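Slide 14.
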Amino acid sequence: MRNWGRKLQGEQRGATLVWVMLAMVALIAMAALAVDGGYAYVQRRRMQNAADAAAIAGARLRALGGTTAEVGAVVNQYATANGATGVSWTYPTGQKIRVTASCSFPTFFAGIIGLWQMTASATGEASIQYLSEAGNLLPMIVEDRDFNIGQIYELWGDDREAPGNFGWLDWNGGSPSTPELADNIRHPSNSGTWRIGDWVPGGPGVKASSQVKSALNIWIGQHVTIPFYDLVQGQGNNTTYRIAGFGEFTLTDYDFQGNPKWVRGYFIRWVELGPGGGPNRGLASVKLTQ
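Slide 15: predicted structure.
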């Protein structure tokens, strides 16, 4: 009987040891799930940031006229700078860039069950859209047509935009004074925000005063946003233009004394914040789409 009791106690101790080992395996598995799973989540968020940053950078460069090779270089630059070791990208459409970023990392506890390394990956996509509304506008407007980016144009000239109206704009309507026009040229933020389809009031006359010239001189060699129009109605003080799009214009020169009178410069590609949906006039907005 005594031997049988000792044998039973030995079997109980053996069973307990088995249960302890099984419990330890379960605890290690739970630790692996908590620690390695949490670390994997952190790495995936890191790759999402890398993919998003690379997609935005690539789309912006694309909107500015970058070549495929240049876009690929900047995509890789931004993705690797944010920790990615694997990078791939595509143009799903001509106006989108999709980037997949990935990295591998060692585990802390999962190696006990044979999982020594894990991989995190994420995809970011950015779209290029051309602005349907804009603010900070220079108070001048030109007829909408296919301008070539970088080509010098003389705007206005003999063909005034409407009878009695040279192409100046008056944001609040009425009959603007020369000081008001000069102030609006100096401070484009006076324009507020305008959208495609809005009718904007025109300001009559050439207004070639020293105040206006002094205000324009501020912008020589600088780029400014100006609206295009597709329809015009009225004349003189009653002129209004229907906005058809927006462009970024670099002012190089002007002449209000000779005949014809003109403003000279060229359009550039530019990216700024704003809602998309407008025509491609070089002024784009880039945003994440997934």
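Speaker note: The chain has two domains: 2-127, 133-288.
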